Amino acid sequence: MLTTFIVNSPILASIVFTLITIATYQFASACQQKWQYIWLNPMLFTISILVPFLLLIDINYQEYSQTTEILNLLLEPAIVALGMPLYQQFKQIRFYWREMTAILVLGITVVITVSFLLAMWLIKAPEIAIALSLKSVTTPIGITLTEQLFGDSSITAFAILIAGLFGALLGPQWLSFIGINSAKAQGLAIGSASHVIGTAVLVRKSAEHGAYSSVALILSAILTALISPWLIPLLQRLVT
């Protein structure tokens, strides 16, 4: 009865579900800052709590998305805020733009090629292979490219989320474990592989980490949009 009343009142539903989402995220963020557990990543924790909660009260994703639209509207200025570390480190970054571009072109080419060929070898479904090969860019660009190349955009959206979460959860620790401790290298690696989610985590480490991750995020999106339309069809011809 209470759930029906809330859902039937758009304003009340918006307030309730928005506050629940924010409170869950802030709780996880506070716990992670206190205990430093990887699995307490605020986004992962919020998803793992909200999904069972919405299933329990029988609210589908469309209804939840509509009632929390204000959070989506705030996402764009939040992403723009990631540009602050980039601005602070711009004088230093501009001296390395050629090297960074070359590294990212190589990395993007390798990732798309390996992901596509591996998916074709294991699954033998071109639409899935296309979707998985475009997992390391921001969601709007990844979905648009997938649709243009006749892939499955729903799989792309899921793969992008997983890539972002794994990069945010394990990326910095893995890089440190294998001896890559440079802020520049970590920033480029996480930003290119785990887009906004990974960048948001790196910003907490230092402004330099966040700046290079932001650069990688932006350049990777642009370069992927330029490379994938000719590389993926080429790979399709090679495997057929």
Rounded Rg: 19 Å
Q: How many structurally independent domains?
A: 2
Residue fraction in strands: under 5%
The number of helical runs is 13
What are the low-pLDDT stretches, counting only 5+ consecutive residues below 50? Answer: none
Name a few traits of the molecule.
globular; mainly alpha; 240 residues
What would you note in describing this structure?
With 240 residues, the protein is mainly α. The chain folds into two domains: 2-77, no CATH class; 84-239, no CATH class. Helix content is 83%, strand content 0%. It is built from 13 helices and no strands. Helix 10 (139-148) packs across helix 11 (153-177). The longest helix has 33 residues, at 207-239. The protein is globular, with a radius of gyration of 19 Å. 32% of the residues are buried. It is found in: Membrane. The chain crosses the membrane at residues 6-25, 37-57, 100-123, 155-175, 210-232. This is LrgB-like family protein. It is a multi-pass membrane protein.
